[in-house]
Amino acid sequence: MVHQIIDWSMRNRFIVLVLAIGIFVWGIFAVKKNPIDAIPDLSENQVIVFTEWMGRSPQLIEDQVTYPLVTNLQGIPKIKYVRGSSMFGMSFIYVIFEDDVDVYWARERVLERISTISKTLPDGATPQLGPDGTGVGHVLWYTLDAPDTDLGEQRAIQDWYVKFALQQVPGVSEIASFGGFQKQYQIAIDPNKLLFYQLTVPQVIAAVRSNNNEAGGRKFEMSDIGYIIKTSGYLKSIEEIANIPVKNQNGTPIRIADVATVQMTGETRLGIFDQDGEGERVGGIVVMRYGENAAEVIDRVKAKMAEVAKGLPKGVKFDIVYDRGELINESVDSIKTTLIEEMIVVSLIVIVFLFHWRSAVSIIIQIPITIAASFILLNAFDISSNIMSLTGIALAIGVIVDNGIIMSENAYKHLSERYAEVVGGGSPKADDR
Fold first, then answer.
1. Which of 129, 164, 217, 317 meets the CB 3.0–4.6 Å disulfide criterion with 230?
2. What is the mean pLDDT of residues 380-396?
3. What is d(CA 306, CA 318) in angstroms, rounded to the nearest whole number?
């Protein structure tokens, strides 16, 4: 079979040359299309289910949220195993699927099962899917450099302006905010005053909820003019909350301010984010969508950040603290330099030792064609250009050259023997004697 291929190739040199050029051009397009990353994605094919039930202990979370979710999610097809983790106020479920399962098919199956489980969970515990990213999807970390702005205001800028703008970038799965204070109204109830006024905590909660509603009305026509009637009941200040009546005793209303203290403060935090020992910062993590090109996503996010920065308050700017794009560029440049150096050194060695330019050229041409063809296979198997794949290509150059040298030397040997037989009229051994 091999002899027939070689014989056909020798008789159809033009076709072989055209095929080689075609593979090389195809490989060039494959190089441009191949996704670039610094490190290979070796994470498992997983779907994360996150449930928040703040204020509850890990044991309560485990018994009433994590355990029911784990037992019900195990029946999904093509699952390897299900892992559960419980902590204060939060539950994490990691559903690990087979490697050949499409991640969005897996997310649909998990979402279908969650819709049937949610009814059995406690009130306030609503499971939701995590971002459609991988374990190496954190491609960019940034903070807001705002020395003259308090942490609550910075977190509001991040959550209500920056986050929504960056989430629109193609290839971004989620912008995870961290640091600062999430503003909220807090009502600190005095139990002694509740006892004095003979009130309960549920009564206070019900009073606040009933007074924080927007009610619709109807259209009212008068003098051929239509008026839309509605009530605006959303609470907008500390004073409005403090003046909410809870109960009427002997014609005297008992207000929230009579039994509790209302204040504007931040949500309870489990940690802080400090940058370079200079104080707390507010920022976000850019999570890349599954299967995207990390280098392109980072470039698009940076371009969007430059646009968003124009709308930030005076004195507020972005500070990038982690950028995988720099690592990607350094890794790719290092491998490119190594490949070019290897090609030059190998070419010189081949020319010096063979001292036959046609044989040397035939070997040297194999190097770029083979490297270009390797990227076609990388795209076919969804493998990105990273440190490991590019290093493997660099190491394979030696095998390519060895193969070319062996084939050229073998061809030169057989041609020499054939030439000796034709010129001497006998075998090379008889001529030697």
1. 217
2. 81
3. 9
Instruction: Mark whether 332 and 408 lie in a shared domain.
Output: yes
The answer to whether residues 34 and 48 belong to one domain is: no
Predicted confidence (pLDDT) per residue in 46-101, tens digit: 999 999 988 889 999 999 999 999 999 988 999 999 999 999 889 999 999 998 89
Residue entry with tokens 């779907």: 47
Vertex 202 angle, CA 200 and 203, to 5°: 65
Q: Which ranges constitute the DSSP H helices of 189-323?
A: 191-197, 201-210, 238-242, 256-259, 294-308
Q: Is the pTM of this model over 0.85?
A: no
Q: Could you tell me if 73 and 96 lie in one domain?
A: yes
- Label the pairing between strands 138-145 and 283-288: antiparallel
DSSP readout, 109-160? HHHHHHHHHGGGSPTT-EEEE--S--TT-EEEEEEEE-TTS-HHHHHHHIII
Q: Which of 266, 286, 303 is at the close of a domain?
A: 266
CATH number of the domain to which 99 belongs: 3.30.70.1430
Strand ranges for 30-72 from DSSP E: 46-52
Mean predicted confidence (pLDDT) in 138-142: 92
Average pLDDT for residues 334-347, to the nearest whole number? 76
Distances (CA, A) of 165 to 175, 296, 302, 312, 365: 10, 17, 12, 12, 49
Quote the CA–CA distance of 265 and 196 in Å, as a whole number: 27
